[in-house]
Design goal:
Layout lengths: L1 H24 L13 E5 L18 E9 L5 E8 L7 E3 L20 E8 L1 H4 L6 E2 L1 H11 L6 E6 L9 H5 L5 H6 L5 E2 L1 H10 L2 E6 L13 H7 L5 E3 L12 E7 L7 E11 L4
Parallel strand pairs: 5-7, 6-8, 7-9, 9-10
Antiparallel strand pairs: 1-12, 2-3, 4-10, 4-12, 5-11, 11-12
Amino acid sequence: MKQNQTRTLRARLLQKNLILIFLSFLGVGCREQSGFPAGEWIDLSYDLSNQTITWPTSDAFQLDTVSAGITEQGYYYSAYNFCASEHGGTHIDAPIHFAQGRKTVDQLSLTQLTGPAVKIDVSRQTAQSRDYQVQIADILNWEKENGRIPDGSMVLLQTGFGQYWPDALKYLGTDKRGPEGVQNLHFPGLAPEAATWLVQNRKIKAVGIDTASIDYGQSQLYGSHVTLMQQDIPAFENVANLEKVPVTGAQIIALPIKIKGGSGGPLRIIAFIPKTTR
């Protein structure tokens, strides 16, 4: 109990310091910035490019040049138009994506999109089966070693599939497009039973995973999406560099494009790792 209370207190202090550093960017509270702990920022987002992996039925990312060069007036000027799926590359699934009447991406609060994270590594299990689904037992085994998942945490699931990005065949299990591609998807996800257990037994803000979907590739009913999003819990998908995130102690900032009424959007997600985190 004391261990969990200490961990929660540390998480709150770190979150306060994250707020202070944001205020410092605005010129507010600069004196307090010196108290921000030493640590490292980790980028958990893939860049958007012509190599970006998207769902087989989604449009590919496209960047069109408006201007790039020296103008008649003698200065350099570049500008581009881009077209992207809400759910391509590193992105967020807002609750409305699978739950009617729940929050759209612009309605998610900054409080829900920032906070402490725990990481559950199932890469050993997924090495045995591409279709592995994270089980309740995986969560309970994690808690035996690390303590109860603190309230207000984001749960990050490391399957090890990030090593395959941006090779669609290895990452998705197929490089086919359209409905045929969807039928041939093979990658790990979160079992619906485990998603149900999380929402019924733990108070979490979000779930993230280093695959293309919180449900495994062969899912037909997307039960984990439905279970989480009916409770207004968003999902982060195609999360990068989870091998660099510790099992506890990281603070997450996950800010999507703020699309009014959107079911999701490209996500810039980063992690702060305090120097004292082991």
